[in-house]
Design a protein that fits this description.
The protein is α/β, with parallel strands linked by helices. Helices cover about 40% and strands about 25% of the residues. The chain contains 5 helices and 6 strands, in the order βαβββαβααβα.
């Protein structure tokens, strides 16, 4: 099963989550920073996972630009998931979360969204809250199992 994880990261926290997801998936996975990924090549993958830090309740500008470049038909019927890094729920609830906005965009493009998850950081620059890398790896396995089950 071919999997692509595309992420943006400002302080390295989202990158750590992306790498944990990719590492848990194992074989036939590519983990790419958003600037290295080709939006027109997404159709070649069985599972596409997109992640970004939450900035003002939205994905980072680089991830928003990447989402805008995805061809309309590239994700039609594809299995996808999204994730973000965010502050504790108390602060983030005021503005919203990047993962949900990414998932909404994926749905509009005809993708099947398996999940949308947030991972917590202790401050604006991090570090990640203890246990978040392990939670990311477990969630990645769950997404992969759903894709395999659906085939």
């Amino acid at each position: 099963m071919r999997t692509l994880v595309v992420y943006d990261s400002v302080h390295g926290n989202t990158e750590k989550i992306a790498q944990a997801i990719g590492g848990a998936i194992g074989d036939d996975v590519q983990v790419l920073r958003v600037g290295e990924a080709d939006a027109s090549a997404l159709a070649a993958f069985d599972l596409v996972i997109l992640g970004a830090p939450t900035h003002g309740g939205r994905p980072s500008p680089a991830m928003a630009a990447f989402l805008a470049k995805i061809p309309t038909s590239a994700l039609q019927g594809k299995k996808t998931a999204s994730f973000d890094t965010r502050l504790t729920p108390k602060w983030a609830k005021i503005f919203g979360f990047a993962a949900g906005k990414i998932a909404g965009r994926l749905k509009k493009m005809g993708a099947t969204v398996l999940g949308s998850e947030g991972f917590f950081v202790k401050g604006t620059e991090g570090p990640l809250v203890d246990g978040e890398l392990e939670r990311a790896a477990a969630l990645a396995q769950q997404w992969v199992n759903w894709v395999k089950w659906a085939k």
